[in-house]
Write a structure and sequence with these properties.
four-stranded mixed β-sheet, single chain
Length: 127
């Protein structure tokens, strides 16, 4: 959905020669209204920096979710991408809390995370 940034091509040179394909874009809520969702519901997002836009179009679906597992970016891999902070704030606003990171990819030169999977679970009422 978003063009690769220069940093993406620096970190992953094999991705530099890509092609463009047009696809239909629909809101997740629109797609899911035709589906029977059972709970507990886990929503998995891996949309290459487009997480904030997907979350924006998924309010009804996310309101039924128990957890969200989403890829988050710490480096600027895509033009106008959602980074960790933006994704975090969007999911907190939907009633989720950050629970941890899994399966992250580190920059070999700095040891810092480039991207990874973040788990968010439904915020429980205070006891």
């Amino acid at each position: 959905m978003l063009p690769m940034a220069r940093r993406h091509k620096e970190l992953f040179p094999f991705t530099a020669g890509g092609t463009t394909t047009q696809v239909e874009v629909r809101r997740l809520d629109e797609l899911m209204q035709e589906e029977t969702l059972t709970c507990p519901l886990l929503v998995k997002l891996d949309v290459q920096g487009y997480e904030d836009r997907v979350i924006q179009g998924a309010g009804k679906t996310l309101s039924r979710a128990t957890a969200v597992l989403t890829e988050v970016n710490f480096e600027p891999l895509y033009t106008h991408q959602a980074d960790f902070d933006l994704t975090y704030r969007a999911l907190v606003a939907c009633g989720f809390e950050f629970r941890g990171m899994w399966d992250h990819t580190l920059d070999e030169t700095t040891g810092l995370p480039i991207f990874g999977d973040a788990l968010f679970t439904r915020r429980q009422p205070s006891r």
